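Working notes for the structural subgroup meeting. M.R. asked for a predicted model of this chain before we commit to crystallization trials. I am recording the input and output together here so anyone reviewing the notebook later can reproduce the run.

Input as submitted:
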Amino acid sequence: MKEEEHPDYPEEEENVPQQSEDDLLPWRETQEEKEAEEEGEGNLKEEERKGNLKEEERKGNLKEEEGKGNLKEEERKGNLKEEEGKGNLKEEEGEGSLKEEEGEGSLKEEEGEGNLKEEEGEGNLKEEEGKGSLKEEEGEGSLTEEEGAGNLKEEEGEGSLTEEEGEETEEKAEAALAEMVAGSQEEIAGVSQQLTMAMINLERLSSTDSQSLMSETSLTIDRESEHSLQTESLSTLSSPSDYELALTSSEEKLIISLQKKMAHLSSGELAQEKVSEPVKEEKRREKKVSYVDKGKEEELQPKAHTPVTGSDSLVSTSSKDTLFQKDDGAKVYPLTMTWKFGWNSSLPVYYIRDEEQRVLLYANAHTAVIYNVYKNTQHHLRGHPNVISCMCASEDRRWIATADRGPDCLLMIWDSFTGIPVHTIFDSCPEGEGIRAIAMTRDAKYLATISDAEIQKVCIWRWTLAAETPACTLDLPKEYGFQNYLIFNPTNNKELVSNSKVRAIHYLWYEERDILIHSAPLLTEKTFNKHVGKFSQSIFHLNFTQVLSATLEGKLVVWDVYRPPLSASTLPYIKPCKLVHLQKEGITVLTTVDSYIVTGDVKGNIKFYDRTLSIINWFSNFKLSSIRTLSFSKTPATPPTEKSNYPSDCTLKGDVFVIRNFIIGTSDAIVYHLKADETKLEKLLIEPKEAICAISCHPYQPLITIGSSCGMIKVWDYKKKRYLFSRVFEKGLGIQSLTYNPEGDLLGAGFIEGTVYILDAMSLENGIPEPFNYSRTSVTHISFSHNSQYMATADANFTVAVYMVKVRNSQRVWEYLARLRSHRQSIRSLLFGVHLDSNEPRLLSLGRDRLLIEYNLLGSYKNHLEVLDIHQTDQGNYPTCMIWYPPLTKELFLLISNSGYKVKLFNSTTKMCRKTLLGPVFGSPVEQVQVLPVKTAMELERRYLVFINRDKVGLQILPIDGNPHKTCAIVCHPNGVAGMALSHNGQYIFTAGGQDLSVVQWEVNLSALEAAVSLGGEDLIPFYGLVSGGREGKFYRELEDYFYYSQLRSQGIDTMEARKVSEHICLSEVPFVMRAIGFYPSEEKIDDIFNEIKFSEYVDTGEVIDKITLPDFLKVYLNHRPPFGYTMSSIQKNFDILGYTNSEGKKAIRREDFLRLLLTKGEHMTEEELSDCFATLLGLNPEGWTSEPAASSLKGSEVRWEEELPEEITAEIFVTDILGLNISPGFEQDAEVSEGARDV
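Returned structure, recorded in token form:
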């Protein structure tokens, strides 16, 4: 194809050359070596300590001129005097002072007896008395330079350059430079004087710098003026231990500005060098953050203001092998992520390294994983609050960018050598929709993102400048479709292309004006008179004058890019010029490598084309599924040798087809590595391609079994992180639940279609002749009895089925027993237990319908499952899970967690609620809970619970008492947790993420959790923090007042007997104190509170408690009250159910219906109770309710309280006008609730 020429189009900046791995930033230009001129003995040669930077002598070639300046050496009393034009340098060492006078300023330094010494790095400045000579030693040589108005004396190495008027070589050099010096001496003298004074001021401010100013001044003048032309602004070099912009004082800013002026004068007038960078670009580059290693920092940083750092940055000192050499050290968190199973196959896999180690980068839920194949180790890039939606890597694979989609979305840039996030953009999408596509320039200087909103926004970020806002933005119209692929032009940082399924867009960034010009031609059937198909990916052609867009029809749209000059009135645009029917299979991946254009298609073929789109070679014999990603090694292919085994291409010549090694990711979640030299395909990752809903750990071996909705069951050795074996069931069978039996020889598997398999645990072969097909919906739970005689299942149709072992022909055979639709809502838990008297199994189920049902297994027979007991667990909240409470007490409990963040302990025999406790409160109720296994019998005294809620996994120390410091949690799957499993020794916890296709392995560190508990305080200290104001707050003082007032009530308000003040109140007073402080328990909750207090010591002492102390009352109150107080949302929800929509659009209840509901529904009230209650609430009863002792209550018939109620009652009227409460719509508001109750 013909390449378009555009001679008038302005050339962009040259890309920064590819840096070696020791270079610190991809955009830093390599320092060029300049050879020193050798034209006589008057040349100045400076050799930097570690650099190979040789500067052309500009000021070093300044010779003494008889008319302008004379060098006079006077050895009288050891003093050195230099008088030149407007400035004289005087050193008087006899009196112990050194004087420098330049222009209008003077430098005075007095040190000791008049000797000035400078020791800087490896160079020392020594002024010796004797002959009055000034020496400066730096590195291996010594440099002496004295600036007056152009007078210079230099001594290098072991030799010195001494200026004498009679030498012939000096006169020649003097004549050659006289014309150049004449115009610039005065300006240089003035600038150097200002620079010297600024350096003195800065030195006085620094109390830690022991170096002298004389050497620093001369070194800064000589060296930094040259560096300022070649490197980026040194004022922005950050400390190696920081990742933020360096802040400079006013003196440092003055020095920097003077250095720039010196550089401009020296380069422009002495060395005749031109600075071509625009002023705006220079200002922009001053903001850049640089990460430099210590050695290069010492070379580049001006010595006068080198920051003092205690340690080097990991980013600045790291190499490519640093990441997997890091020592994790001591575990400081209770839960530490150690391994991630799975791969998000919708995102690409990147080939990070292919040398001594084979390293991959891929996304797994909200974590990016750097996986070392040879070492079988992972490093996790964690920090995203949501599932990662897109990612990219720089050309050299040093820098990684990741973005997520959801609330509080982040855009993060990582260093792949260390795994450290070097920059995070928090407000990349203020609306919270997240990022849909991301791209990075070849030199990693810029990032481009496309948001995931309805109106997509394209942003370009100068992330290397630590910018928090984009350089430019562009809103895309809806008709462009959702752009989901984005890429930069490899040779032009200002040019991009993106595509959706229906539209390709070309962008050109005018950085000077911070605008983004785009062109998005619409393709129709008439454009080429052929069907084009849906776009998959777009790239820039190898000639960079065209854009290629691949389609799912196997076609390639070729776009010509028109770039008019800036002076032209037309804007850049693309125009479709050709439709190439490249292949029959739909193209899913389009990329370039070296001189090839590469495609991957839906049939698993990988094809290579040259720049004319002629096929060169292809790989089609591997029988892969649809190609999702191709990533080539950054290491160039090795040239063919006699031992190499490169394939031949398909051209007539049959040349050797030399290509780099590359990674292949397919739609069935398999990652391959292709070694081109041997055409050898190796599987690296084999992961489930659909949701992971079921996991289970072996009861005594380090094995974890993972089940996916695609029908795959995989078994891993989680200790060695090694995949062992798997089984894929026929299409249509998806795994929903997995459980090992207690012996570990069988594995029960429940499927989405309702099928139940019993498999051999070590081979995954069928353990029964035919699977059970008694359910028509998904099997959600599987459980085995303690002796493996029974197996029970629960399905999504609220049905419990039981299977048992029978002996047939001397063989154990599993048979179906019976099933029963025992619940009205979903079954939350299915649990086997043991009868204490007979050791026979017992089976219980817990439903969302608040029913706890126990079945009579011994009384059941074929097709009949008998129910033994039904018990309601709660009133308003619904249960979420159930387990057997560990035997920490003499009484055996069932632990049931509910949606109100409460944990209830029920007596396993009587089903009486014995305790209600505050459970883990981490954003959502607990959904599953298990007891952490112990390794030894010594650990039985200290037990722990493991729980998961909607998106977190956590630990809880037993016994539960409401102490919030006994719990901890961490986000494990932002989009929801599907399941949990525990290792047999309690060392690891595994969580499954469902739709995020991941399983996370967490290492448990109980000592860290215990440390957190000890820091939280003992006794009541943790509980004081749960009330407003704490121990000394207003709420607790009021509680004390109510507590002691309750004692007066129990003794009688009007009694004349002596008052008995104690530390207790009667049990009957507890409800009144609860209501007084703003908690209104139902009658059932009051019964639970009474039972909890009365029988708290019954098992140990046999006594019934009838009183309670203030500390115990505080614990009971905190454990029973709503965790977030009463909120308008919860009250409004009830009105939404019971009310109707009034004329104002609000839910309301008529007065008659409101009173009828109170009298007939729920815990209904009597008419007398209702009358007394409303009389008190409406202020018609002056003393309070009839339960108040000695209160002069009016009879209900005498009070017309019905007339005080409005005819229409809304939630707001009920709360504010009737109850008199001031309830916030937010979370917990203890003070406001108490105040509202007190006003009543």
